[in-house]
Specification:
This protein is mainly alpha-helical. It contains 19 helices and 5 strands. It has a 5-stranded parallel β-sheet, with helices on both faces. Strand 2, helix 3 and strand 3 form a beta-alpha-beta unit.
């Protein structure tokens, strides 16, 4: 599936690098990728695809021993190169620089980038780009109009939140009005003469969640932090567990994996102690997703399976299905396509029992990608077409993903063959019609 995440961006990067080479100039890009595993895979794919296009691209690291420019000069002394791709942050390396040191290195690079001999592509986690905005202004100005973010609607969504929909379904305009009302209520509580600090907690929690639903993560983080302080003297362990969990999700979004893991674990300990099995299942899911991002697949599988087992005891089929989808992507990442399809099919069945058409379509979409990767176009069209039909009826943007995949298959097999596949798809039942793909 990774080629679908990376292909379009890499192809465009290669076009841009080629144009820079032909013009005798150089450009700088920033690729936003939190997962260190995906950063390495992106870099490998970029180098491989560049070579096929006649470009020479080399790898560099943000390390304490050498500046980026020194690494450029070292690579250029070995052979003629067209670009360098920089892995921006590796906490596992022995000489890994601190966050502040990285910002200093990025700023130093930007100041010395005039007359840059080759183009440079930085692969950075979200939090480092956010830090660069504040602490490396020259670097930010250099890359701000050339940032590639893979969390766009065109890719199959690897949704980070355990409950993928906002806590309160509403339009942006309605949510903004609700935020204004909550901010006003909080200000009023604070102005009361006899108000105790704990009086603010309910409003703080709702406001923080609403900021989160509105993707205002910095404000959400700030308000959750204030809520944690207010909860210190309150006898409310489940509220504390909830806040720790949500702060963990925000840190996870930003790419602060170690801090996110600690918040998840602290939340899990409280929830298990308090018998909050539903909350524990959610936290186990998030830990699975975090370790999947880090490439620690054995740990990820363990947490995912524990989450599924917990939800089965609660008869929470819909949330079990969400975890099974993520488990399927993990198996797919590791080349176990038949196991991935098993998870997607089980997720589909759980969603079907609950009448969750959105989830059913997501399961079909993921399954279709596996058949497409195996060049089993007749089968993949059946899944993509059915997923597209559901997304279209629900007016969900994911229909564009299915439509793009269908268009790519039509280009590969020709119009006549494609129309034959579509006709067959109208009679397709995903529950029974297709065999499992083999691992070979």
């Amino acid at each position: 599936m990774l080629q679908h995440f990376f292909k379009d961006a890499i192809d465009q990067l290669i076009v841009d690098v080629t144009a820079a080479v032909k013009s005798g100039g150089a450009k700088v890009w920033a690729v936003k990728l939190n997962s260190p595993v995906q950063r390495v895979r992106f870099m490998s794919k970029m180098i491989q695809t560049s070579a096929a296009s006649g470009l020479t691209v080399r790898e560099a690291l943000l390390a304490s021993r050498q500046t980026i420019v020194q690494q450029l000069e070292r690579e250029m002394s070995k052979t003629a190169i067209d670009a360098v791709i920089v892995n921006g942050f590796d906490t596992s390396a022995k000489d890994a620089p601190t966050e502040d040191k990285v910002c200093q290195m990025l700023e130093s690079f930007a100041k010395s980038s005039v007359g840059l001999p080759v183009s440079v592509v930085f692969c950075l986690p979200t939090f480092l780009l956010d830090l660069a905005y504040r602490k490396a202004p020259n670097f930010w100005r250099l890359v701000s109009s050339h940032i590639i973010d893979f969390k766009t609607g065109i890719d199959i969504p690897k949704e980070l939140e355990y409950d993928v929909m906002p806590s309160v379904p509403e339009t942006t305009e309605v949510r903004q009005k609700r935020i204004e009302l909550l901010e006003s209520q909080l200000a009023e509580i604070r102005q009361r003469f006899n108000a105790a600090p704990s009086d603010q907690i309910p409003t703080l929690l709702i406001l923080a969640q609403t900021y989160f639903d509105d993707h205002q993560y910095e404000k959400s983080y700030e308000v959750y932090g204030e809520a944690l302080l207010q909860l210190v003297g309150a006898n409310s362990p489940l509220n504390r567990a909830k806040v720790l969990y949500q702060v963990g999700v925000i840190l996870h979004i930003w790419g602060y994996y170690e801090k996110a893991a600690q918040h998840y674990r602290d939340s899990l300990a409280i929830r298990m102690q308090q018998g909050d099995l539903e909350g524990a299942a959610a936290t186990l899911h998030q830990l699975g997703l975090l370790y999947q991002d880090l490439g620690e697949f054995d740990k990820a599988i363990d947490f995912y399976m524990r989450s599924v087992a917990q939800n089965k005891t609660l008869n929470s089929d819909a949330v079990s299905a969400s975890t099974l989808l993520h488990l399927g992507t993990l198996y797919e990442e590791t080349g176990l396509q038949a196991k991935a399809v098993e998870q997607y099919r089980e997720a589909f069945e759980l969603y079907r029992r609950k009448g969750n058409y959105r989830g059913m379509a997501m399961s079909l979409l993921y399954t279709g990608r596996i058949y497409e990767e195996r060049y089993l176009y007749r089968e993949s069209v059946k899944y993509f077409y059915t997923a597209y039909s559901i997304f279209d009826k629900l007016n969900l943007p994911y229909k564009d993903i299915a439509a793009q995949s269908l268009a790519e298959i039509e280009a590969a097999v020709g119009k006549d063959e494609f129309e034959k596949f579509v006709k067959e798809s109208k009679k397709f039942s995903p529950k029974k019609d297709l065999p499992e793909p083999s691992e070979s």
